[in-house]
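Can't paste images in this forum, so I'm doing it all in text. The chain is below; anyone willing to post the predicted structure tokens underneath?
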Amino acid sequence: MNEAANRRLLEELGLRSDLKFLYRFEYQASFGDAGSENELCAVYIGKSLDSVIVNINEISQWRFISPANLAHEMAGHPERFTPWFKMEWSRLQDEYIGDIESL
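Text version of the structure:
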């Protein structure tokens, strides 16, 4: 799994990092007429000094945001975020914020 995560990080963002595995989660979400998702996901964290090179076939938008600013934006505009991201950001803040801040 670690090998796949590193491969996708390079393919999607052009980044290399020593990733740290945190946990797995499963979610199911419906998106109106667009369909639904039922996925098993793994969460990793890491740090890189590489410049981001976005693969536009995989990612439509990206930006850097600090954990504090992300929490503030999510509280004020939850509609901007996917259901699974809101759920997992809450867990990351509750259980792994020390790991994130140590990067």
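The chain has one domain: 2-101. Residues 83-101 form the longest helix (19 residues).
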